[in-house]
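Issue 218. Parser rejects a valid record. Input:
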Amino acid sequence: MPLKFEFNMIVYILIVVILGTSAVMFKSKRGKVLGIVVRFILGGAFIYLFNLIAKFVNVSLPLNPITALIIGFLEVPGFALLLILRYVIYP
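Output the parser choked on:
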């Protein structure tokens, strides 16, 4: 089954490129900006992989910059928060 390249992934890649460029521009604060970029990338990658696996049980999370940052910074509690928001509070 070929992977479907969606518009959200294009936007996500563009945002990562913009954040990477801004990380290079802020050389004095590179550690902080680079940390944010890494967490953003890891959060987005986790959501993407989760959606690939969970599509078999009809569960998904939206892949956008806000959810990627929430999972990137809060990790497992952020993931639980998004699932609760998605399926319990706003079904």
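Fixed in the parser; the record now loads. The chain has one domain: 7-89.
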